[in-house]
Write a structure and sequence with these properties.
The structure is a single chain. The chain is built from three helices and 28 strands. With 396 residues, it is mainly beta. The termini are far apart. The N terminus is likely disordered.
Length: 396
């Protein structure tokens, strides 16, 4: 009898042990699956490739989503927009922002892919400006000029994450006095919202404790066919600007505002980006294409009082992008310095003119151009700026 009981107990114990092993195995598989899911976004971007510590600050990748299936990923390293998935006319989503699969790619060499630019977007001649009789020398990083905030601008620092929700994120940082040569401790906050109207809204705010100059902007490289899918010369573009600011061979404005009418810079009526790009025009030669500031018209405005700066349509996919802002200008850059050397997230090279940028801004070199709108910020005042990228579809 005792032997029988012992046999039964052993049998039951064996079953329990086997069952526990199977349960643990199932749990292990489920845990592994969960970890794999957590390590990737729905569009196969590996989150762990963007997790590190730089000079004691943690870097992570964050995801914004809306109710329409749009998805944006952004890192607090330089506020880099890593991906933006937008639908085409058939409802297929494609990543329309150029970028890389690993944070190391962004850190390896100087680039501005997807970044917030500061303290000053665009160029300042010879890296100098004067405030109240004092001349400041900025970092020189573009031939003899200062570009996009200097050698280590806002694109190359780690930002604090103040809030991170499903549909918005807020970054902040204090740029210390004399960083890259700029006076004043500049407290900066930038908020990104992904709305259910398929808008990516960017709102900048800054304050200083000394007079300084500021001109923040966003530098995503867009291709509405999808990143890495050829060039953008067939994209149809409209820029709501009757004038632009011509530049010299160093891409510094000469202080004039010239009418676009009768020039290759006339985008007041929609036309392919590549339509006039090969014309014999001094300004096109200086920049190897388009890399110019357009002076925006004051109308039309949306319901929030922001001017329609530009609209781009990709005919094959039907994707559209509208840009709205309260800034007086927008820099249109046509990917003229892309060479195919950069390999993007999808493993494809970023070819010559394989993207476009539309950077809402005050004008280049404004600190040295008294005829341009001022970019000076004084203590007690608050700098604000808004940029909206709105994505849609047209059935052409």
């Amino acid at each position: 009898m005792k032997a029988t009981k012992l046999l039964i107990a052993t049998f039951i114990s064996g079953i329990c042990l086997l069952s526990c092993k199977e349960t643990k195995k199932e749990q292990s598989i489920e845990t592994l699956k969960e970890e794999m899911e957590e390590s990737k976004l729905s569009h196969e971007l590996n989150v762990k490739n963007f997790e590190t510590v730089i000079e004691g600050d943690s870097v992570k990748l964050y995801t914004l989503k809306n109710n329409n299936g749009m998805e944006v990923t952004i890192t607090n390293y330089g506020q880099r927009l890593i991906s933006l998935h937008a639908p085409d006319k058939n409802g297929n989503f494609e990543d329309v922002v150029l970028g890389f699969p690993h944070l190391d790619n962004y850190r390896a060499k100087k680039n501005y892919y997807g970044a917030t630019i500061g303290r000053y977007g665009n160029r300042i001649a010879k890296g100098k400006f004067t405030i109240d009789g004092t001349t400041y020398d900025l970092a020189i990083n573009n031939n003899e000029n200062h570009l996009h905030g200097g050698i280590k601008g806002f694109e190359s620092v780690v930002w604090n994450v103040d809030e991170a929700k499903d549909d918005y994120i807020v970054f902040s940082r204090t740029s210390p006095d004399m960083e890259e040569g700029y006076p004043g401790n500049l407290k900066v906050s930038v908020r990104y919202d992904l709305t259910n109207d398929n808008e990516l809204k960017i709102f900048y705010k800054a304050e200083t404790d000394k007079p300084t100059f500021i001109n923040l902007t966003h530098h995503s490289f867009f291709n509405l066919k999808g990143e890495g899918n050829g060039d953008v010369t067939d994209h149809i573009m409209m820029i709501n600007a009757d004038g632009f600011t011509p530049v010299n061979s160093g891409l510094i404005p000469n202080g004039e505002v010239v009418k676009v009418e009768g020039t290759p810079f006339d985008f007041t009526q929609p036309k392919p980006i590549g339509k006039d790009i090969e014309e014999e025009h001094e300004q096109l030669k200086f920049a190897n294409g388009y890399d110019h500031n357009f002076v925006l018209n004051e109308e039309p405005k949306n319901s929030e009082g922001l001017v329609l700066a530009a609209k781009v349509v990709e005919p094959e996919s039907g994707r559209t992008m509208e840009v709205y802002t309260d800034e007086p200008g927008v820099q249109f850059y046509g990917g003229n310095f892309l060479t195919g050397a950069d390999i993007g997230k999808s493993g494809k090279p970023y070819v010559f003119r394989g993207s476009f940028c539309l950077e809402t801004q005050h004008f280049p070199d404004s600190p040295n151009q008294p005829n341009f709108p001022s970019t000076r910020l004084d203590p007690g005042r608050t700098y604000t700026s808004t940029c909206v990228y709105k994505f849609g579809v047209e059935y052409i």
